[in-house]
Amino acid sequence: MKRPPFWRNIRVIRAALQIVAVAVVVGAFLYLGNNLRNELVAKGLPTDFSFLSQPTGVNIADSDFDPASPVWRALLVGIKNTFLLVIVGIPFLTILGTLIGVARLSTNWLVAKAAMVYVETLRNIPPLLIILFVFNAVILQLPPPRDPSTPLDWFVISNLKITGPGFAASSGAGALLAIALFAVLAAVIVGIWRTKYSETTGHHSHRVLWSLGVFVAIVLVGYFLTGRPVSMSFPDLDGRVITGGFGGLGSYFAVLIALVMYTASHVAEIVRGSIQAVPKGQTEAANAIALSGFQRLRYVILPQAFRIALPPIINQYLNFAKNTSLAIAIGFTEITLITFQAIGNGYPAPQLILLLMGAYLLFSLTISLLVNILNRRLQLVGN
Questions:
Q1: pLDDT tens-digit profile of 215-236?
Q2: Residue-range domain boundaries for the chain
Q3: Pick from 298, 313, 304: which is nearest to 371 by CA?
Q4: How far apart are the first and last CA of the chain?
């Protein structure tokens, strides 16, 4: 039997099509890149990233940033501010979304309907509008900076900045941090030991209490051994100058509150659906052994529901990180606003936009990596 010619072989055809597709994409990038380079040269703009060492020429609110500092340093400040939104917002939206998702399935009519109204209202409003509403209707209605509110003398609240109790570090704080990291490692080891002990003996592990006790004990001993390098710091108001304490701009809290509320409405629906996806037999079995409602959720329903919920929740974490770019609408100096300020000062937009895209890509890949590691830990492994 005569074999068909090689160009009719399906494998050859697939390989050829893939080569052609790659060649077309590479050619398009080269063509567009060459056009971009020619335009930059024609306008007298740099075609590399050497401009990053030049002075930024902008001030950054609530920061000691010097306008004479290089552009790359300003971009790092913007990344730090974006990171502060992400690292604080994700835990809050997870807790709030879980509580609302559970509340939607409550047998209490009022609680269930209130949770439904929350979800159906917020998730159908664009996040930008929620940010603008929180900023204008909540933050800007606070007292002006010239006459801030000082409840309990522990807080200084104005529409410009909100400051509360914080911590002040002195020499020895680095050593205490190292001890705290060691305490975390010790707590993890103790938790693993208590889990194995429970599996071997059948007794309750109490691993959370043991781990927390070990962590607190080590940190307390380290705190006194290092000379108590960390102390409470309360804000002190002198005219319009606030010293001590810990706080942030009103615009920061507006973005944080708005995006947490918005994203939590989506997380709540994921949690609700995941709880309903747990087989009803699990609930019936929990009732049969006389578990309370809280115990049923804590030990039976939620652990199984979170295995289902975590993959789609990752997408909501990514959406939260990307939606922080909307903070530009109210002037919060995160990475997007600083990038556009640099472009407005005459620095080349293509390179800056490329760096901006890279920054958000780094946030997204980091969040995906960490949560996917957790997701793999939660998955059931068959024999």
A1: 999 989 888 888 888 777 778 7
A2: 6-44, 71-124+249-378
A3: 313
A4: 48
The C-alpha atoms of residue 136 and residue 130 are separated, in whole angstroms, by 10
Question: Are the beta carbons of 229 and 171 closer than 8 angstroms?
Answer: yes
Count of other CB atoms within 10 angstroms of residue 74: 27
Q: What is the C-alpha to C-alpha distance for residues 317 and 270, in angstroms, rounded to an integer? A: 13
Q: Which fold has domain 71-124+249-378?
A: MetI-like fold (1.10.3720)
Query: Are the C-beta atoms of 327 and 318 separated by less than 8 Å?
Result: no
Residue 43: pLDDT band with limits 50, 70, 90:
confident
Report the candidate in 119, 118, 75, 40 with the shortest Cα–Cα distance to residue 350. Answer: 40
Q: How far apart are CA 146 and CA 160, in angstroms?
A: 10
Q: Are 332 and 60 in contact (CB under 8 A)?
A: no
- Collapse the DSSP code of 248 into the 3-class scheme (helix H, G, I; strand E, B; otherwise coil) and give the result: strand
Task: Give tens-digit pLDDT for 93-143.
Answer: 999 999 999 899 888 889 999 999 999 999 999 999 999 999 999 888 888
